[in-house]
Design goal:
The protein is α/β, with parallel strands linked by helices. The protein is 38% helix and 18% strand. It folds into 2 domains: 17-130 and 228-342, Periplasmic binding protein-like II (D-Maltodextrin-Binding Protein, domain 2), CATH 3.40.190; 133-224, D-Maltodextrin-Binding Protein, domain 2 (3-Layer(aba) Sandwich), CATH 3.40.190.10. The strands form 2 sheets. Strands 1, 2, 3, 4, 5, 6 and 12 form a 7-stranded mixed β-sheet that branches. A 5-stranded mixed β-sheet has the order 9-8-10-7-11.
Length: 344
Amino acid sequence: MTPAKHPLSRRTLLRRGLGLGALALGGPTLLSACSSGSGATTAPDGTTALNYQLSWLPTTEHSGSWIAADRGYYRENGLSVNFLNGGPNTSPDTVVMSDKALIGGSNADVVSKAVVQGADLRIFGTRFQKSPFCLLSRADNPINSPQDMIGKKIGVAALNETAFNLLLQINDIDPGSVEVVPVQFDPSPVANREVDGQVVFVINEPTQLEVKGIETHTFLFADYGYAVFSGVYFAKARTVQDNPEQLAAFLRAERRGWEANLADPELGTNLTVDVFGKDQGFDRAQQLLESKILEQIMVTPDTDSLGLLALPPALIDQNIKTLNAAGIDVSADQLFTTSVLDSL
């Protein structure tokens, strides 16, 4: 079995209607911190209270944050952090621009589109060094690379068409050489052999099949030229300039939380299922698989030398090239800043 397993799909959550929208999550070290000015206030205990708009629902993909809150890492860095749930109807860039959160989580392509449209935002760190986009196939009929897709039936949901077409472009593959089959966000077409492969997230759909006893195979788009940071941390450019110490304190705590989770993925799983996502009905085994697979897209030789959450210069350049190829006319200086990470 090749690497790629995980739990509950984002799309499965949608179909089950589990807690969508922006919700504040409580916890022993969390304080509400809504602000009409900067997205941060002074808490009664003297710490800086701020809102963090999550990129998605409270799954184990936020394990580092749960641990930072539970173990007091935020507080040790002078912060009280309040989490706001993400979801399909939440736009993190809008939340941050309206000062309802100091920090937001999203993907580089989403933030770049907001920047092009006039939002003065900067990405100052990233959870995932590699995009979680992957091509899922069955282990008994594996598709090992983009070239292997030629002549095959590939399931592509409408929202994934841009990423898939860009992968073809980057790898000089004629779109006409691949039979694209419209699908929804459900891996059953692969399970039922209706398609040979399907575009999914490596931290989502593959393990839905694995838990059913279907052996899977994947390859990451990121390993074939598709460079788009996922799970980025971003804030207003004004915040980066005026309050960089708050962002640095946040990243210090996040980094410690993620280091702990990578060492023991059950930590984040238990906090997800029992505390921060306890009202979501998550399956513990699936969440543990997601927690374990995060290492595949978080840890690289770059993070070994620069630390977790890094923005390696070479990857910034690759991201800009990928975004430009997708028609998003943005520069590195407009989208990224390494000043916060450099101060850690």
